[in-house]
Automatic annotation (TrEMBL):
<keyword id="KW-0408">Iron</keyword>
<dbReference type="GO" id="GO:0051539">
    <property type="term" value="F:4 iron, 4 sulfur cluster binding"/>
</dbReference>
<dbReference type="InterPro" id="IPR033756">
    <property type="entry name" value="YlxH/NBP35"/>
</dbReference>
<comment type="similarity">
    <text>Belongs to the Mrp/NBP35 ATP-binding proteins family.</text>
</comment>
<feature type="binding site">
    <location>
        <begin position="13"/>
        <end position="20"/>
    </location>
    <ligand>
        <name>ATP</name>
    </ligand>
</feature>
<dbReference type="GO" id="GO:0005524">
    <property type="term" value="F:ATP binding"/>
</dbReference>
<dbReference type="InterPro" id="IPR000808">
    <property type="entry name" value="Mrp-like_CS"/>
</dbReference>
<comment type="subunit">
    <text>Homodimer.</text>
</comment>
<dbReference type="InterPro" id="IPR019591">
    <property type="entry name" value="Mrp/NBP35_ATP-bd"/>
</dbReference>
<keyword id="KW-0067">ATP-binding</keyword>
<dbReference type="GO" id="GO:0140663">
    <property type="term" value="F:ATP-dependent FeS chaperone activity"/>
</dbReference>
<comment type="function">
    <text>Binds and transfers iron-sulfur (Fe-S) clusters to target apoproteins. Can hydrolyze ATP.</text>
</comment>
<dbReference type="GO" id="GO:0046872">
    <property type="term" value="F:metal ion binding"/>
</dbReference>
<dbReference type="InterPro" id="IPR027417">
    <property type="entry name" value="P-loop_NTPase"/>
</dbReference>
<keyword id="KW-0479">Metal-binding</keyword>
<dbReference type="InterPro" id="IPR044304">
    <property type="entry name" value="NUBPL-like"/>
</dbReference>
<keyword id="KW-0378">Hydrolase</keyword>
Amino acid sequence: MPTVKNIIVVASGKGGVGKSTVSANLAIALARNGMKVALVDADIYGPSIPTMFGIRDERPPVSVLGDKEQIIPIEKFGVKIMSIGFFTKPNQGLIWRGPMAANSIKQLLETTEWGDIDYMVIDFPPGTGDIQLTIAQSLNLTGAIIVTTPQEIALADARKAASMFVTAGIEVPIIGVVENMSWFTPKQHPTEKYFIFGEGGGAKLATEINSVLLGQVPLVMEVGAAADKGMSVFSQTEKSVVTAFEDLAEKVLSAVEV
Ligand SMILES: Nc1ncnc2c1ncn2[C@@H]1O[C@H](COP(=O)(O)OP(=O)(O)OP(=O)(O)O)[C@@H](O)[C@H]1O
């Protein structure tokens, strides 16, 4: 993909820790900074990006140039989006084996007409399977962001995901760790923080893997509601999450220059 300057993968060990939420809102935040941004949903067995962007029923058009067919990504909130979810029936899971799934992602990336892109964010499936390995080995990745909740069981899996990137032959720099669902602040008690999943886990992981903590995203009910309705968190009244993603984008912009 010669027109794509930087490819950043967002990975986690455990599922459900907020990897897609971080991928989606990081992409939107980078676009709000004037960057040309693409978002690839590589979470092939549970693609949630189309729902999060409210584009689940859309089908990307195909452009034909001579004998070459290219898929045009769907654009929303300033981000060019591609997902295997556009090509599957809702409620129907994929039952592909790893190599087939990995190849379909590769093909999807190669046949999409991206245009000039400053940052491509790839939302990885959780864990360290064939898809992650194939993408890490075949694309020239700029770096990886590890998402975790502060909970020890999430951290244990996040360590494994991080170790994949430092394995010989893969060697993708880890840009940093994002701790999601860091605390909960009830509306009635705006000065209080409840550390539901524990405290300091993201920072601990960052130190262990010789990296940095890029940010902490609080647990906010509207985040889940916005995802279900296909709304950006940036349209919310709850500013703590907006600030968290703006800060994250700033850190990524200074760590990975265009
Ligand atoms: N900070 C947050 N506050 C409230 N809800 C959140 C937050 N982050 C994520 N969620 C919600 O938690 C659920 C899981 O998030 P998400 O889909 O981003 O996780 P994931 O790690 O990508 O999961 P998987 O890879 O297993 O599909 C979603 O319903 C999402 O809206």
